[in-house]
Amino acid sequence: MTERTLDGNAIGGLLLELFGVELTAAPCVCGGCGAREEVARLDVYLDCPGVVVRCRHCTDVMITIVRGRERTWIDLRGTRGLEL
Amino acid sequence: MAGAAVLGRLTWLAAEVAAVRQETSSVRTLELGVPGWSEHRAGQHVDIRLTAEDGYQAQRSYSIASAPGEPLAITVERLEDGEVSPYLVDQVREGDRFEVRGPIGGYFVWDGDEPEPVLLVAGGSGVVPLMAMARHRAHAGSAAPMRLLYSSRSWDDVIYREELETLGLDVVHTLTREQPEGWKGYARRIDDELLLEVAFPVAESPRVYVCGSTRFVDAAADGLVRLGYDPLWIRTERFGATG
Prior knowledge:
The complex is a heterodimer of chains A (84) and B (243). In chain A, 10% of the residues lie in helices and 37% in strands. Chain A is mainly β. Chain A starts with 5 loop residues before the first strand and ends with a strand. The model of chain A has no long low-confidence stretch (mean pLDDT 92). Chain B is α/β, with parallel strands linked by helices. Chain B has helices spanning 2-8, 85-91, 127-140, 161-164, 192-198, 214-226; strands spanning 13-24, 27-33, 45-51, 57-63, 73-77, 97-104, 118-123, 146-152, 170-175, 207-212, 234-238. In chain B, strand 8, helix 4 and strand 9 form a beta-alpha-beta unit. The chains are: A mainly beta (84), B alpha/beta (243). The A-B interface holds A 2-10, 12-13, 16-17, 20-22, 24-25, 38-41, 46 and B 5-6, 8-10, 45, 47, 61, 101-102, 104-108, 213-215, 235-242.
């Protein structure tokens, strides 16, 4: 399973598409443990229904992104802050 | 600044394969002509989208191999059970077309404007974005010392083998599975002792770029931190077998 863990670099294109700005270098604060890491340094799972981004320290879910045919659902509950 | 937001948007562009180069038995470089492409930074990647005749689409990310200012080139390794990479490595010919978007990424990049020494650590095809940095350093005439620690299964699996000798950086190979007769270099997976022998001293505040499988990246990054490297010096990119 660990081999399937990617990092935030892998969703750079998706985030750029959704938000219109480069986000892999943006620091992001975990809502669970407060760790602050660039998005590129977070754990990313692409094999789930949608995309799941977890904190590399406490493994809490920080971001989920689910794409439908014509819309996308983004859940940022586990992210306390994102710096641009 | 609505205009800026629009400029930042990522759109799919038509790409045409301009040239094809076989690197190893399972790795090929594709040079792409993409009208409207903007210049990339060393270390960035592109998304590629293939569309079948029935409308089915498959999308993958590939690192850019060429230096900034050079024509866009990607290097792709064939993954046996992959959906996209066997097509790109075995079937694509000059003149074929697909879609690309990018360049993507602002974290795993090296612009060549810092004086600190640069340690590149590559596992297999993880060498691709690091090759863009090595080429960029050579083209830009950067004075930053650069060293590549490159782990491959065998000598025949070493991507860019000849060109690496011409770029003016130190290259240290380790061959983990099979070594040529008389091989005097490293012949094992990266461990702390190997890192200690190859890495720049901590006092030089080196910048580090590690790219490879998750297991490889974690081993190299954790080992460097144990040597005393500041985690902030180490930038990593994991690639997965998404084919």
